[in-house]
């Protein structure tokens, strides 16, 4: 969305040339009059300063309709424009004041937005590095295994509802659910958005943890015990935590199509020989080749 647009003169190699300038929330854009193509852009978060031109521009403008009003835009040396300075001439004092105020304010807002994005991205990279570390993966795997052991113990003990043992297992389940929810939140922040949901393992984690949370929050709903059964599938998260297991699962998944093709070939061969068996041996041995179904079973 264009916040303001104006015809202007732009200083190019000590010569003033007509341009069309307009400003958005993020950029100061420059175009050649009569063309919709952008010839240059200045990211507003890289604007170091906006100043007035010190000298009268009337001589340089050589009688053009543009009068004696202009401003400079100073850019960052390490930015997109490599410290380049832009000089613009306008046609009135009112235009000059409007552009000075608008560019200065927009640059300040853009810098704040850019700093915020940069800060979030910095934290995201730190969280990503943490969640990919060996210590994090091993700790997470240990917690998943410990949760499995507790589920086994609970299934073996079968504590009565309301007993101390039942309360202990319930508290442990709440603790593990909170831990796994915190882990999921960190992964969601580190891989936000599409990288997270494009991973089957992450989607599986999201599904299991969400079901676990729902079983705790909605514990009084009828049939909620069915949702609690999903906690058993937490152990499958080990396949994502341990690289060796993940490699094995990926290899098995990759082999499904070739194995299915081999199975189809085997079925076709079986069908061919079953048909031949019925045609050739139906009269001689009807007990084993009397029909196609019997011949297939015989083969």
UniProtKB/TrEMBL annotation:
How does the protein associate with the membrane?
A: Multi-pass membrane protein
Alphabetical list of InterPro entries matching this protein: Ion_trans_dom, PH_domain, VGCC_Ca_Na, Volt_channel_dom_sf
> Principal place where this protein is found?
membrane
User: What Pfam families does its record include?
Assistant: Ion_trans
Domain named PH is located at 1-108
Instruction: Tell me where in or outside the cell this protein is found.
Output: Membrane
What are the transmembrane regions?
Answer: 166-194, 206-227, 248-276
> From the UniProt record, which GO molecular function terms apply?
voltage-gated sodium channel activity
Keywords from the named record: Membrane, Transmembrane, Transmembrane helix
Q: Which PROSITE patterns does this entry report, sorted A to Z?
A: PH_DOMAIN
For this record, the Gene Ontology CC terms, alphabetical, are: voltage-gated sodium channel complex
Q: What is this protein called?
A: PH domain-containing protein
């Amino acid at each position: 969305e264009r916040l303001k647009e104006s015809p202007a003169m732009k200083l190019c190699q000590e010569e003033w040339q007509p341009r069309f300038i307009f400003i958005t929330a993020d950029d100061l854009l420059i175009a050649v009059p009569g063309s919709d193509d952008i010839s240059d852009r200045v990211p507003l978060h890289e604007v170091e300063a906006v100043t007035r031109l010190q000298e009268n521009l009337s001589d340089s403008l050589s009688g053009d309709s543009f009068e004696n009003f202009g401003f400079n835009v100073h850019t960052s040396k390490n930015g997109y424009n490599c410290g380049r300075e832009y000089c613009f001439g306008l046609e009135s004092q009112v235009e000059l004041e409007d552009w000075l105020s608008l560019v200065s304010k927009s640059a300040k807002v853009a810098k704040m937005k850019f700093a915020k994005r940069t800060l979030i991205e910095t934290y995201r990279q730190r969280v990503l590095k943490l969640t990919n570390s060996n210590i994090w993966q091993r700790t997470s795997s240990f917690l998943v295994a410990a949760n499995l052991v507790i589920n086994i113990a609970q299934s073996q003990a079968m504590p009565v509802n309301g007993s101390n043992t039942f309360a202990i297992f319930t508290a442990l389940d709440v603790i593990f659910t909170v831990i796994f929810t915190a882990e999921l939140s960190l992964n969601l922040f580190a891989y936000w958005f599409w990288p997270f949901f494009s991973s089957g393992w992450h989607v599986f984690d999201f599904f299991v943890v969400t079901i676990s949370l729902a079983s705790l929050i909605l514990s009084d709903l009828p049939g909620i015990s069915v949702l609690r059964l999903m906690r058993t599938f937490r152990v499958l998260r080990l396949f994502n935590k341990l690289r060796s297991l993940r490699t094995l699962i990926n290899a098995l998944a990759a082999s499904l199509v070739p194995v299915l093709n081999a199975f189809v070939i085997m079925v076709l061969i079986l069908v061919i020989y079953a048909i031949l068996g019925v045609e050739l041996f139906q009269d001689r041995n009807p007990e084993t080749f009397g029909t196609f179904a019997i011949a297939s079973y015989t083969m």
